[in-house]
Design brief:
- Pathway: Cell wall biogenesis; peptidoglycan biosynthesis.
- Belongs to the MurCDEF family. MurT subfamily.
- The chain is an alpha/beta fold.
- Helix content is 38%, strand content 16%.
- The strands form three sheets. The protein has a six-stranded parallel sheet, with helices on both faces. Strands 9-10-14-11-12-13 form a six-stranded mixed sheet, with helices on both faces.
- Helix 5 links the parallel strand 2 and strand 3.
- Helix 6 packs parallel to helix 7 and helix 7 runs parallel beside helix 8.
- It is globular, with a radius of gyration of 22 Å.
Amino acid sequence: MGKVQLIDKFRLGLAVCVAKSVTFGVRSLRLGAASVLPGSIARRIEPNLLRSLSQQVKQGIILIAGTNGKTTTSLLLRTMLEEQGYRVALNSTGANLENGLVTALMESSNLIGTLNVDYAILEVDENIVAKVLQPIQPKIILCLNLFRDQLDRYGEVDSISKRWTKAISTLAPDTVVIPNADDPTLSYLGQQLSQKVVFFGLTEPEKYLEAIPHAVDSIYCPNCGHSLDYEGVYLSHLGDYTCPSCGFAKSEPALKSREWEQVLVGLYNKYNTLAAVTAAKELGIDEANIRKAIPKFQPAFGRAEELNINGKKVRILLSKNPVGTNETIRVVTESNNQTTLLVLNDRVQDGEDVSWIWDVDTEKLVQRGGTLIVSGDRVYDMALRLRYSQDSLDNNLNLIVEEDLRQAITTALEHTPVNETLHILPTYTAMLDVREALTGKKIR
């Protein structure tokens, strides 16, 4: 072994050892989950740590990107791989920037930075996909969807898709790319690549929405810019479409979606299920093990997670952008439960621009009546949005505005009958605050 290699191994071992000490200290003092800080410190010691760790994954890395559904899809795919007997590394807390990816890989290594896993599943923030593809060199890339999310940070979806296409096109020819065929932008992306491309999507027209929703992002042809003709939409701009101008059309999904049961509530979780199943099949997982894993699946914190608080059922539905919130509202309105808590924050992880709430179809939530409690850093913005959703002030709606989150939760539980479920719709940091208030545990 040469001198340079010895120095590299020493720096790798030192970086990992220091990071693991930081992790132990943070968790021992109950300061959080230590999902980001260890990676940040370790990368200062060894800047190439992401590449060094990624190269040690035996069978390859599955990279999962998209606006919504990354965490649920990641956890479901891990369940399928573990059912087959594989060892899997995963950034399970959802820390999906570079420091979080490094931390997750170090979590599965020993003190000198030796990694002993078959696969690593890394959910990656859509804005850094192009940056991390080269050091990671993924075996499979899952492209779930692209919606407007935190415009103050990301910009529009077409700019992101162009960066993805350019970066993915430089990868090895045997890289497998799995895009969502129902998303016109991602379907077009897949059609431009020379790598192996396998599509997933819904094939159930009976689940079309009655009309294209207000929070729609991409109804124009990504090839020529003409308006797409939709046979129907499943959510936002995801559906069955063709371009009457240039002939661009939805790609054919590899699976018949009605043949697969979905995890958790909400149509968006059918997409997550299909994405994970398609990837598992590409990895050669036995279909029996895939089907066995789905009913065993346990949701991540805040993603349709169900808790029992003082004998009452609570379901947390992360709601961080227009499309996601419209879908969680659909879950609420299709239930018989009459109490809902909405918590709106505007911290860095949420996106500081909350104007997106005006693209949410809150009218559907308000019109059904019941009790709505609002809280969070931007409680009055949300309260105003709900007021504007009312046809009149004398409808059967009980709107409660409560600045203090813990009191808001207490009030919501008091208004929830024992035989019903309290739905909580929080933004990302609000979800962390809600879970800490309900369970006493931090997830930071």
